[in-house]
Amino acid sequence: MTTQHLIGLTPDELQQVARRLGFPAFVGKQIADWLYKKHVEGIDEMSNLSKKVRATLQSEGYAVGARKPVKCQRSKDGTVKYLFPTTDGHFVETVYIPDKERATLCVSCQVGCKMKCAFCMTGRQGFVSSLSAADILNQIYSLPERDTLTNIVFMGQGEPFDNLDAVMRAIEVLTAEWGHAWSPKRITVSTVGLQKGFDRFLNESKCHLAISLHHPIPSERAEIMPAEKAFGIKQIVELLKQQDFCTRRKMPVEQGVHQRRLSFEYIVFQGINDSISHAKALLRLLDGLECRVNLIRFHDIPDTPLHGVDEKRMTEFRDYLTSHGLFTTIRASRGQDIFAACGLLSTAEKEAEGTP
Fold first, then answer.
1. How far is CA 196 from CA 3, 124, 162, 260, in A?
2. Catalytic: 342?
3. Which one is catalytic: 72, 93, 177, 349?
4. Which residue among 13, 45, 342, 353 is the active-site one?
5. What is the largest CA-CA distance in the chain?
6. Which of 208, 229, 294, 309 has the fewest CB atoms below 10 angstroms from its CB?
7. Do 90 and 132 form a contact (C-beta atoms < 8 A)?
8. How many angstroms separate the CA atoms of 164 and 161, rounded?
9. Radius of gyration of the chain from Cα atoms?
């Protein structure tokens, strides 16, 4: 019998489960409360359900779906990387990043990735499988530090827009009043820019959006990011200019204040995208967008001709963009010593082993 996980189901779907098993619909609402408000790990903990209901749920193959991490690595800077098992027998990495009053969780949405970016270990791993909504939510649900979280970023393994159904379902659970009741402003979704997911995400979500840019010139971007060939960065920017990200001076007054933040991720590579001409191209590309650029240090991975820049170059690049009106920051690198930093996540070794 295939196990059916309750995490990720909406109250309406849980009511349908209750009716299908011959119980009143309100049982589904009770289950939702146990899942999303009380975070139980097992059906037996749902104490206001009758023994018959609990026994029937279990005999019919239902389970909460909470699966604790099987491995934990702690960085000297306080970052923690967890290895979670997935429902289909694979593994995925999740990174917890505490920083003073903030605590951010970098969640994954796929095992491996199809995008094959030249600078990313997850892309090197290749695509293995997409996570279910239950797998995505379990990274939060079963996190030891769950109650300290202030922010969630979909910047772990995988491309969120390539698994958008599951990602949107997870966001619904996180933001709904019946779920975790988080503000969507606490959630950021990062994408290389897949056309098939853009409209849906922008129309159905109020979460922040981060675009993996990394190069402002399309032909050169394509050399390190094959996704450019399918849906180019210029098309992406033009689409975004039609949304509520445009600068306030170009917006009709009645549209009001922006409801979400737009950012562009830019790993700085020596001799590839770090010159003043690249900075000028970036300014031209993003002109007319109210956005920010996050500069990211490149972390060396095996067998690549790419190299990072020194701190002086990184600062010069940032200062040039900032002095020309583009809000730019340098993202602090966290967890590099445990391979938890940007671009370093991979479960290829664990997949080969088949065990944690």
1. 31, 23, 8, 21
2. yes
3. 93
4. 342
5. 70
6. 229
7. no
8. 5
9. 22
Q: What CATH class has 4-63?
A: mainly alpha
**CB burial class (10 A; 0-12, 13-18, 19+) of residue 331?**
middle
What distance in Å separates the CA atoms of residue 324 and residue 70, rounded to the nearest whole number? 48
Instruction: Among 3.20.20.70, 3.40.50.410, 3.90.870.30, 3.90.226.10, name the CATH number for the domain at 107-132+147-344.
Output: 3.20.20.70
Query: pTM of the entire structure?
Result: 0.93
* Side chain identity, residue 187: I
Instruction: Please confirm, yes or no, whether 93 is among the known catalytic residues.
Output: yes
Portions of the chain given CATH number 3.20.20.70: 107-132+147-344
The closest of 205, 310, 203, 308 to 266, measured between CA atoms, is 308
CA distance 350 to 126: 13
Strand-strand pairing, 129-130 and 110-111:
antiparallel
What's the pLDDT at 245?
56
Q: Cα 116–211–318 angle (5° rounding)?
A: 105
Q: What is the mean pLDDT of each run of 10 residues along the chain (356 residues)?
A: 91 97 96 96 96 96 96 95 94 95 96 94 93 97 96 97 97 97 96 89 93 97 96 94 57 49 96 98 95 94 90 97 97 87 80 65
